[in-house]
Amino acid sequence: MTDARFQSSGALATNAVVRFVERSSRLLARIPVSLTQLVLRFAVAIPFWNSGLTKWDGFLQISNSAVYLFQEEFKLHILGATASFPLPKLMAFLSGSGEILFPLMLFIGLGTRFAALGLLGMTAIIQLTIPDGWASFHLPWAAMALAVITYGPGLLSLDHLISRRFRR
Asked: Are 106 and 42 in contact (CB under 8 A)?
């Protein structure tokens, strides 16, 4: 008798856990996809934006420290070899521009997929420059950029508003 009661109470506990998990899962599935898309846009944009802010001394005036990094510190690591960046002043300017422009586009949701593609490309170059950062930074940035490229900007974006306007 005690074995039967023990099995019965175990089955009840298992059923309760299954019901709890199912209810919780249904509740979590109600999170709006557009909220997730918005958070992804901001999450991938913020580290690039913060880095971009450090590269400028004024409007279209790249900082000397940014140029120095591309001239002296940053090196490309390709197939076991190390190479200097070509045209370091131009690279500093393009890097600083991308780190400001692409995040702005993501923040407002304009040209969102293209901005995320730009950050994905920058992430690839950063990976070649700092190969040890893949697990801590580059992989999450790439994953977020890919998610934005794949799933788009969501309802809370200028892309969506423009799309709705032109569909009418």
From this structure: yes
What is the SS3 assignment for 84? strand
What angle is formed at CA 92 by the lines to CA 64 and CA 82, rounded to 5 degrees?
110
Q: Cβ-count burial of 96 within 10 angstroms (0-12 exposed, 13-18 middle, 19+ buried)? A: buried
Three-state SS across 55-79? CEEECCEECHHHHHHHHHHCEEEEC
User: Residue 17, SS3?
Assistant: helix
63-72 CB contacts, 8 Å cutoff, 24+ apart: 63/96, 66/92, 66/95, 66/96, 67/92, 70/95
Average pLDDT of every residue of the chain: 93
Reported as a single tens digit per residue, the pLDDT across 133-157 is 998 999 999 999 999 999 999 999 9
